[in-house]
Amino acid sequence: MKLKKIGNSELNICPIGQGTLFGRTSSKITDEIINKKIKVLEYGLQLGMNFIDTGEDYEKGVSEELLKKVLKNKRQKAIIGSKFKPSNNSFQGVISSIEGTLKRIGTDYIDLYQIQWPNPKIQIEETFEAFEKLVKEGKILYYGVGNFDLPKIKKAIKADNLKKFISIQTEYDPFNRQLENDLQFLEDNKLSVIAYMSLGKENFSKEEQKLLSSLSEKYNQSIRSIVLNWIISHKNVNILTSSLSLNHTKENFLASSFELNDLDIGEINKLFNRSIEKIDPKDIEVLDYDESDNAHLIYTNLEDALKNKHGIKPNAEEIAQEIMTTGTLLRPIELKLNDSKYSNKPYVLVRGRMRFWGWIVAYGYDKKIDAKIFK
Ligand SMILES: NC(=O)c1ccc[n+]([C@@H]2O[C@H](COP(=O)([O-])OP(=O)(O)OC[C@H]3O[C@@H](n4cnc5c(N)ncnc54)[C@H](OP(=O)(O)O)[C@@H]3O)[C@@H](O)[C@H]2O)c1
């Protein structure tokens, strides 16, 4: 496994990092799950997955807390990324958030401190001013941003007086490739990508499945490892994966143990090329059940999305504000053809549940929304 440098920093990480969310298969926080997660993170570290990503509100702070145990006597072996929720993007918010994070993790510094999501009410200069203070105090080494589009990244580069801005955290997977338009710019500006949700929803077409299966056989790796490897084959791209299983963690790690050749990378590039279509939101059904993701929380109507009883962040109103500022979605939503006999809506929403409701809050049902369609 080859380590990769994040941006132009001194941080050399395994390109497959470990996330600390408990995953999409569980929404409960129990001692059993906490202990499982601790074991998995320790195992990942032993394998060499030295980059661990967390956040102040991940699993209500428990994700940071359990790192205290994982990192006991081996803080130096890990590179820790943490982040704060968008309501804390202000100068004071960042300054107080770091104290909670350091205390929960039981460390005196964070390697990479990140903005989780933009907050349209707070200017990037204000957040970066706080980052600069924290670097000077030795509480953080570097900083990054999450879920920023290119114009926001450009503003962040301008605001970076200390030249410690090194990373962008964002969704990237074979179905969601618009990031590739920006990769050269990011590389030129010495910024690395830390990707998440990197397997998409595995809604592969027959042709895609066939190609991945043949590559899986050729390289003697799982399909998941092939996809993860394709992602990290991009020079400045790394991935976060998250698991409660030792076997899955090993499989994810193995994705960094081989290299797809250029020809095979080219085959994936050619085949995974879904176009973005404009779809009438009235034609989209939002179901409370998702066969590929049985614990992902979904609101099926606007009223529930606005109430947001599950506390999903950013919420529909925050996303709507962002949409109205930029006029677009950060990423298209994903739809499947609706095969239900009982519905006259041709599509079912499979990914982008809060983005969809954010769009409805912003524009109602009258403006078409960007979507990728999976047959
Ligand atoms: N900045 C942001 O806005 C943001 C948003 C989301 C996530 N993140 C970060 O990214 C990390 C990763 O999150 P993610 O959702 O992208 O992770 P992911 O690895 O794509 O998905 C996690 C889910 O995939 C399953 N899984 C993991 N490895 C597997 C394998 N080898 N085979 C089959 N299933 C597997 C896990 O189940 P098992 O437990 O059964 O393995 C879990 O349910 C998070 O922990 C967090 O640190 C950041």
Strand order of the largest sheet: 3-4-5-6-7-8-9-10
Give the number of helices. Answer: 13
Order of helices and strands: EEEHEHEHEHEHEHEHHEHHEEHHEEHE
- Shape label: globular
Distance between the termini: 36 Å
Low-confidence stretches: none
CATH topology label of the largest domain: TIM Barrel
For this structure, what is the CATH class of the largest domain? Alpha Beta
Number of domains: 2
Summary, kept brief:
The protein has helices at residues 31-47, 62-70, 91-105, 124-136, 150-159, 180-188, 206-219, 223-232, 246-254, 262-271, 302-307, 316-326, 353-363; strands spanning 4-5, 12-13, 16-19, 51-53, 79-84, 110-115, 140-146, 165-171, 192-196, 237-241, 277-279, 284-285, 333-337, 347-351, 369-374. With 375 residues, it is an alpha/beta fold. The chain folds into 2 domains: 4-271, TIM Barrel; 281-374, Alpha-Beta Complex (Conserved hypothetical protein from pyrococcus furiosus pfu- 392566-001, ParB domain).
Walk me through the topology.
Blueprint: E1 4-5, E2 12-13, E3 16-19, H1 31-47, E4 51-53, H2 62-70, E5 79-84, H3 91-105, E6 110-115, H4 124-136, E7 140-146, H5 150-159, E8 165-171, H6 180-188, E9 192-196, H7 206-219, H8 223-232, E10 237-241, H9 246-254, H10 262-271, E11 277-279, E12 284-285, H11 302-307, H12 316-326, E13 333-337, E14 347-351, H13 353-363, E15 369-374
Parallel strand pairs: 3-4, 3-10, 4-5, 5-6, 6-7, 7-8, 8-9, 9-10, 12-14, 13-15
Antiparallel strand pairs: 1-2, 11-15, 13-14
Helix pairs in contact: 1-2, 1-9, 2-3, 3-4, 4-5, 7-8, 7-10, 12-13
This protein binds NADP nicotinamide-adenine-dinucleotide phosphate.
NADP nicotinamide-adenine-dinucleotide phosphate (NAP) binds at residues 19-21, 23-25, 53, 116, 146-147, 169, 196-199, 224, 240-245, 248, 251-252.
